[in-house]
Amino acid sequence: MSDTTKLVAEKRSDFGKGAARKIRRAGNIPAVMYGHGTDPVHISLPGHDTMMALKQANALLTIVIDGDEQLALAKDVQRDPIKPVIDHVDLVVVRRGEKVTVDVAVHLEGDAAPETIVTLDHTSLQLEVEATNIPETLVVSVEGLEAGTQIHAGAVELPQGATLVTDAEALVVNVTAAISEAAAEAELAEAEAEAGIVREEEGEAEGTEAPTAEAPEASEEA
């Protein structure tokens, strides 16, 4: 991933919640950029373009401030818990050729053997990789894999120049035999028995009402 998204930013001197709300009302996103021993730079980013750029994980950005360009990665993205908007972005300055540590999503490809279940134990792996060559995903093929097959982090193919930070023995993919309906039912019954749960026999769930005695006829005597 060598392409970058260019975002034209404006420096800001007003801080605090009130200033941040004002920036967001104007359709922009408050942000701070830091790294490489430089003082933090507080900026305002274009809202729509930034949201589109950050849809891609580990997006490499070119931040333009007063005509000067600076490469940066989003270190922390704070999103509104209700609205589909970004509240604030922390950006870390990077250099071309510099290596950074990032989490990269694992994407499964293909179909395992029939009557198997594929479990993805690690949805992402941590890599040390050049800032200008961060992969969007790590593709792992499960095509035709039989039950009992396991793929560990060390066996996942990495892009050239990348180094695995996650423990190489970490389980990424586990292929197991699918449980039959009868086996699943037996397993459930065993678990219920251990928990002291007694199932009602079929037909007992809908209990019949006990007969009620008829009320005696009212006496005609005054």
TrEMBL record:
MF annotations from Gene Ontology: 5S rRNA binding; structural constituent of ribosome
| Keyword vocabulary terms for this entry | Ribonucleoprotein, Ribosomal protein, RNA-binding, rRNA-binding
Q: How does it assemble?
A: Part of the 50S ribosomal subunit; part of the 5S rRNA/L5/L18/L25 subcomplex. Contacts the 5S rRNA. Binds to the 5S rRNA independently of L5 and L18.
Q: Which Gene3D superfamilies match?
A: Ribosomal protein L25, beta domain (2.170.120.20), Ribosomal Protein L25, Chain P (2.40.240.10)
Q: Name one GO biological process term.
A: translation
Could you tell me the gene encoding this protein?
A: rplY
Name listed for the protein in its UniProt record: Large ribosomal subunit protein bL25
Region annotation Disordered: residue ranges? 189-222
Q: Which InterPro entries has this protein been placed in?
A: Rbsml_bL25/Gln-tRNA_synth_N, Ribosomal_bL25/Gln-tRNA_synth, Ribosomal_bL25_b-dom, Ribosomal_bL25_C, Ribosomal_bL25_long, Ribosomal_L25_dom, Ribosomal_uL5_bac-type
Under PANTHER family, the record lists: RIBOSOMAL PROTEIN L25/GLN-TRNA SYNTHETASE, ANTI-CODON-BINDING DOMAIN-CONTAINING PROTEIN (PTHR33284), RIBOSOMAL PROTEIN L25_GLN-TRNA SYNTHETASE, ANTI-CODON-BINDING DOMAIN-CONTAINING PROTEIN (PTHR33284:SF1)
**Function as written in the Swiss-Prot or TrEMBL entry:** This is one of the proteins that binds to the 5S RNA in the ribosome where it forms part of the central protuberance.
Q: Which family does the UniProt entry place this protein in?
A: Belongs to the bacterial ribosomal protein bL25 family. CTC subfamily.
Annotated Large ribosomal subunit protein bL25 beta domain residues: 99-177
- Species name for this entry? Intrasporangium oryzae NRRL B-24470
- Source organism phylogeny: Bacteria, Bacillati, Actinomycetota, Actinomycetes, Micrococcales
